[in-house]
Structure formats: structure tokens, C-alpha cells
Specification:
heterodimer, A: 286 residues, mainly alpha, MetI-like fold, 72% helix, globular, B: 282 residues, 0% strand
Chain lengths: 286, 282
């Protein structure tokens, strides 16, 4: 038997145990707790049915969180990915300085979200920040960007593009480099213009890469949290909440286990729906 | 357009225009970072009138006051302990599990693999409150393990996937020959698989380490004693205390991103490889 049984009994349990205890069980418990009103002490006894969910969807702060998450997804897909692709095209081939530019564009991605958030909190600061200085230099009053509920979310979107476009650019570079250069040459000999080559050769060949980058962008947008905390913590007056900052503000800090679990379940369902839809689109086209 | 060049990119663009665009974007990327590093060298008054330019006089004291105290080093040490434990345990648990899935077929093995890979899809945030209750009931609140073990558990999906893909690409003849020669599974894992797996161990190790090094939500929920804070929590606390002294906050931020930048320079190859590994599996 060569110890086949032994290896199974020795090698699998650590992973299975940890995963079950800290991932699978809490997921299930979130669904269970979400129908109780519970502050975390004793056992959950105050059964409230779907009341937590009803409360949640009637809360304006939560609805604005959903809208903000949607906004982050839209900007990621419509602004960030095209930008990342364009820059990938510009630095994909070897010219002097290409690698340096790639590394520079990648730097924001390697920063921790919290550090990037504090850096931009400084950039946006109304008294000491770069934006305020630039505004007063051209004759405007210094804006307090992050304290303005009409501006704060847009300011955060700028930070998101700044932070993550380099990651997507790297993915596109890897994809571009896998395309056979002979294809371009053949298309060129056949008289295709640069634009035709882009639409008829590059983009179709890059489809799996684009799908992957869309996957990362959307999944990351759904669970957005770390970057917002140092910038606005979801404020001013809930104008920059996302699902997870909402969960943190109204569930975790107030120890509303049942209510917070309901938010977690909604987040879970959104992830499932996205994964399901994504898989359908992917298998449908392949 | 008839010159015999290699067309690496689909769009041909004037070289000068290309450089101009790249320089512009590089500037936009770097300005906040450079201003942060320089801001750490300024006095508060200097920062107020001159956030962009070079410091009027270089205030090394801002950096020195942080580097000479125990606080900064203590945060790095906490982060290091948590990240190393997380990386080592994840590597061990994931490589062992992936080895079984790659070489041993048994009833339900595919289902078990699918079960473990489910973790890929869901962020820890979905179950953060039940996770908090669980960690509390296990007595792990305010301990390193309370952060490490859940981080390992949530990192398993990605790690097992990468190891599994790698193990299956190793030549199968190797395994058959070893078994015929009477080498057991566990000895094969120890003496053949692991030595051959250095590249993937490096990739997974770096990804898990960096992820743990930067993580914020889980430590925020699990750790209340600031003597246990990893650096992201410590930096936020520092910013809270010195919120009116931007020059100190900027120096602190610069010093905390320094280790990450150094790590990136050292482990660049593995980090980029790890990120694009997903692209290959497509």
C-alpha cells in the first residue's frame, strides 16, 4: 500500500480542520445568527425571522453602500481596465525604460491599502494637502474634499484607479506577451491597419486575460474596505459606505451580531451570484 | 510602415508621444508618494505652505524620533511574527493537502478538493462576526493565533490551487518509479516533491506573506491590546494620536511602507509570477 492510507490521514486533516473551523462553519453560522437579535453573549435566543434583512434594506445608509459598490465596479470596468490595457500596450514591448515604467506603475499596488489611504488622506487634506495647494495656486478656495459628501466618493474612486491599475496592467502585459508575434506580422502583411489589428487580433486573443482581470476587479470591488477606513470611515454622513464598511460600522463596532451577520449573508449571496454569472458567461463563450 | 520590425504591440504610436504619455502617468503615480516621503522631512509650517517642493530645511528629527523609539519596531515585530507563522502554516497545510489530491484517488477526493477551493470566492468579511465569536469562544482573542489561524484557513483555497496545478505538472513517471522502488508516499513528498517545488513554494509563500503583512480587517476585529498590533493597526492608531502633526504621520507612513518596498525589490520575480499564475490557468 506504500502508506496510501497514512498519507491521506496525515496530510489532509490540517487543511480540512482549519478550513472547516474558520471558514465553512462561520459561513453557516452567519446564516443562523442572521435571524436572531443577539449581542454576542449567551446563546442567540431572540428569534426575529427576517427582520434584520428588512431593516437592512430599509436603511438608507445600506442602500447608498450598495450604490457605492456598484459605482466602484463601474469605474473599475469602464475607466481602470481600459487605462490598464492602454498602458500595457505602451510598455509591453522592449524599449529602453519599459521595465522601469512597469515597476513605477506597479508601486501603488504593492502598498498596503491602509498606507495608500493615509497617503491620499494627506493629498486631499484641506489645510496641508496637495489638492488644496494646487487649488489655491490657481485661485480657488481650498476644498475639504473628504469632508464634502458630494465629493468624497469621487475622491475615493480616484484613489482606487491609482492603486489598482498597475495590477491589471501587469495581467495584460502577461497576456500580450503570450500572443504569437507572427499573428501581427501576418495581419500586417495582409494589409490590416493598426486599429484593425487591435480589434480583430489582439482583443480576441486577449479574451481569457480580460475575463480574469474583470473577475479580480469585480470581486475586489464587492468587498472593498481597507482603503476607505483611513480616508473617510464611510462618512461624511454615510456618503462613502460600502457593504463591508457598513458591516463594520453598524455590525462589528456595535456588536450587533445578528444584524451584522445578515449583512455578511447578503455579501455572500452577491459573491455567489457574481461567480455563477461569471462562470456562465465564460463557459458560454468558450 | 514597410520596415521589417517585429510587432510586439498591436498599436504603433510615435515614440515621442508614447514617452510623453508614460511620463505623465508616472508623474501622477509618483507625486503623492514623493510628497509623502518629502513631507516627512518638513516642519509643519513648511508643509502647510509648501506641500509639493523640497523641504526648506531637512528635519531628520521627524524620522529619527520614530526610529529611536520602541513603538515602530514593536509593530514591525508583531507583523513579522503574524506573517511568518501564517506563511509557514499555510505552506505546510496547503502543500500536504494538494499532494494528496494530486496523487491519491479515493472516494470523495474530488468533492473534498472542490470544498476547499470554495474559500477562493468569499472574503473573510462575509463571516467576520461569527468568526469573531468563534475566536472568542476558543480563547484566542488578543493572541497572535487568533489572527494567524483564520488567515491560514482563508488562504488555503488559493494556495492549494497553485500547489495542485504545480504537482500535476511534475512528470508522473517519477512518482511511478519511486513507488515501484518501494518509496512510500510520505518519503516521496519529503525527498522528491518538495525539493522540486521550490519555485511554487516561493510564489505561494510570498503571496501569503504579503497578504498577511498588509491585512487589516481581521486584526482590527481580533486584537484590542495595542502591544499586539501589527503595523497597519499601529499606523492608524499613530495617525489618530498625531492627527494634527502631518509631518510625523507622513514620516511614519514612509517608514512603514519601506519594508514592503524592500520586500518587493527582493521578491519581485515571485510576486509578479504569483499574480500572473492565475492568468495561465485562465
Amino acid at each position: 500500500m506504500n502508506g496510501k492510507l497514512a498519507v491521506v490521514l496525515l496530510f489532509l486533516p490540517p487543511a480540512l480542520f482549519l478550513f472547516t473551523l474558520f471558514v465553512a462553519l462561520p459561513m453557516g453560522e452567519a446564516a443562523w445568527y442572521s435571524v436572531y437579535n443577539w449581542n454576542g453573549y449567551g446563546t442567540p435566543e431572540n428569534f426575529v425571522g427576517l427582520k434584520n434583512y428588512i431593516l437592512l434594506f430599509h436603511d438608507r445608509a445600506f442602500r447608498s453602500a450598495l450604490v457605492n459598490n456598484l459605482l466602484i465596479i463601474v469605474v473599475s470596468l469602464a475607466v481602470q481596465l481600459p487605462l490598464a490595457f492602454a498602458l500595457a500596450v505602451l510598455v509591453a514591448d522592449r524599449f529602453r525604460g519599459a521595465v522601469t515604467f512597469r515597476m513605477i506603475f506597479f508601486v501603488p499596488y504593492i502598498l498596503a491599502e491602509v498606507a495608500a489611504g493615509l497617503i491620499w488622506r494627506f493629498v486631499y487634506d484641506g489645510d496641508y494637502g496637495l489638492v488644496a495647494k494646487a487649488a489655491t495656486a490657481v485661485g480657488f478656495a481650498a476644498p475639504y474634499v473628504l469632508a464634502d459628501r458630494d465629493l468624497a466618493m469621487y475622491a475615493i474612486l480616484v484613489v482606487i484607479v491609482w492603486k489598482y491599475f498597475g495590477f491589471h496592467m501587469m495581467i495584460y502585459i502577461a497576456g500580450l506577451q503570450q500572443i504569437d508575434p507572427n499573428l501581427y506580422e501576418a495581419a500586417h502583411i495582409d494589409g490590416a491597419t493598426g486599429r484593425q489589428i487591435l480589434w480583430r487580433v489582439t482583443l480576441p486573443m486577449l479574451r481569457p486575460t480580460i475575463m480574469l482581470s474583470v473577475f479580480f476587479a469585480v470581486l475586489g470591488s464587492i468587498q472593498f474596505f481597507d482603503l476607505i477606513m483611513p480616508l473617510t470611515k464611510g462618512g461624511p454622513s454615510d456618503s462613502t459606505q460600502t457593504i463591508v464598511t457598513y458591516l463594520y460600522t453598524y455590525g462589528v463596532t456595535r456588536m450587533r451580531i445578528g444584524f451584522g451577520s445578515a449583512v455578511g449573508v447578503v455579501l455572500f449571496l452577491i459573491c455567489v451570484a457574481f461567480a455563477f454569472g461569471y462562470n456562465r458567461i465564460r463557459t458560454h463563450h468558450d | 510602415m514597410t520596415d521589417p520590425v517585429r510587432y510586439d504591440t498591436p498599436v504603433t504610436i510615435a515614440p515621442l508621444l508614447r514617452i510623453a504619455i508614460l511620463l505623465l502617468v508616472a508623474g501622477l503615480v509618483l507625486i503623492p508618494l514623493v510628497a509623502t516621503v518629502l513631507g516627512g522631512f518638513k516642519s509643519l509650517g513648511d508643509l502647510r505652505v509648501n506641500p509639493f517642493g523640497l523641504p526648506e530645511s531637512w528635519e531628520w528629527d521627524n524620522y529619527w524620533s520614530i526610529l529611536s523609539g520602541p513603538r515602530y519596531w514593536h509593530l514591525l515585530l508583531n507583523s513579522l511574527i503574524i506573517s511568518v507563522l501564517t506563511a509557514v502554516l499555510t505552506l505546510a497545510a496547503a502543500s500536504m493537502a494538494a499532494f494528496v489530491f494530486a496523487h491519491v484517488r479515493f472516494f470523495g477526493s474530488r468533492l473534498l478538493l472542490q470544498y476547499l477551493l470554495l474559500g477562493l470566492l468569499f472574503p473573510a468579511a462575509t463571516a467576520i462576526l461569527p468568526l469573531f465569536i468563534k475566536i472568542r469562544d476558543l480563547g484566542l482573542l488578543d493572541t497572535y493565533w487568533g489572527v494567524v489561524l483564520p488567515q491560514v484557513a482563508f488562504g488555503l483555497g488559493m494556495s492549494i490551487l497553485l500547489f495542485h496545478n504545480f504537482f500535476r505538472q511534475l512528470p508522473g513517471e517519477l512518482f511511478d518509479a519511486a513507488l515501484v522502488d518501494g518509496c512510500g508516499y510520505i518519503r516521496f513528498f519529503r525527498y522528491v516533491t518538495l525539493p522540486l517545488s521550490r519555485p511554487i513554494i516561493a510564489v505561494v509563500g510570498v503571496i501569503v506573506f504579503v497578504h498577511s503583512w498588509n491585512s487589516y480587517l481581521l486584526p482590527l476585529v481580533v486584537l484590542n491590546r495595542d502591544s499586539l498590533y501589527p503595523w497597519p493597526l499601529g499606523m492608524m492608531a499613530y495617525q489618530g494620536e498625531y492627527s494634527t502633526d502631518w509631518q510625523l504621520v507622513l514620516a511614519f507612513v514612509t517608514l512603514t511602507i519601506l519594508p514592503a518596498v524592500c520586500m518587493f525589490i527582493v521578491a519581485q520575480k515571485y510576486l509578479v509570477a504569483g499574480l500572473t499564475a492565475g492568468a495561465v490557468k485562465g
